[in-house]
Request: fold
Amino acid sequence: MKLEQIQFVHFRNHASLTFVPSGGINLIYGPNGSGKTSILEGIHYCALTKGFVSAYDIECLKEGNLFFLVKGKFASESGTETEVKVSYSRQNGKQLNVNSRNIATFSSHIGVIPCITFSPSDLSIIAGSPAERRRFLDNAICQTDTRYLDALLNYRRILQQRNALLFQIREHRSGMEMLDILTEQIAEHAACIVSARIRFIREILPLTEANLVAVSAGETPHISYRCSFFSHDNSELPDQLSRLFKERIREKRQEEISRAQTAIGPHRDDLLFFLNEKEIKKYASQGQKRSFIITLKLALYRYFLDKLDEQPICLFDDLFSELDHHRVDALLLLLSGFGQSIITTTEKREIAGVSALNICEIA
Reply:
């Protein structure tokens, strides 16, 4: 997949801008606050219907305006063209239009334009809360597996219903039969989610290791899935996981009722990252953490390509900061074998095979 052109109207700090990238590595440079990241965020809106920096659509609306519009034209490896328009206004909210057709269910668009992102805030995948690591898993797997996306949406819906019912049971002591029904339903989706997550980790780990060897020789990564209802990350069939979930949750019933919260499930699971058998969060340097996250994100390129038979677009914000020349050169060598990459940086770099664009010269 390649971005052919993207237009912005009243998006973040761009009143009107059109960006036409090359098909290889694109380097957008310029001072902080000049709108480099906004270009990446607009592309992300076209791919995943949301930003990767701003959590709320209204934060992308240029001050003093009533709406924003992002319009991107993309071409697949087979030559199929896709035009995506994402608009937002305070009055009508967010709207998605793909090939002149309004899309009511945004989740149905996920995976049409595969996209990989990196920004400095992604270090929170290591140092932040378990929710950050679960978000990484979900964003990656949802782009390649519609069954996972469906299971995740259904799980979240039933989880909300189940927690509300637990509160009702605690307060009024009624609804136990419905609790059993919701437990059966949520167990099926929990098993599907955990099974897919474990499979993803097993497939992404060797790809991450190969990238890390290229960028930082001598370091061996490992990723472990910490599940809330079983103690190992060996391969488990969904039926087995569903049974384990129901067995474990029966033991937690009184605790769940007293807290009015579902005690176990994918919403409470976590990842552990290791480098040379030491937990990265506790022992790695900032440079090692950054290199690990970047190589983990780069591993998604091969993963997406294998699953979708389509090259993802790579969006990397401030990729080179805190990296020495050796690691930068190694990263660029890896990216030269990828499809389209768009990288932001504060300084101009003269690099063979890289299209460098000054943000101030993009009209």
About this structure: The longest strand covers residues 2-11.
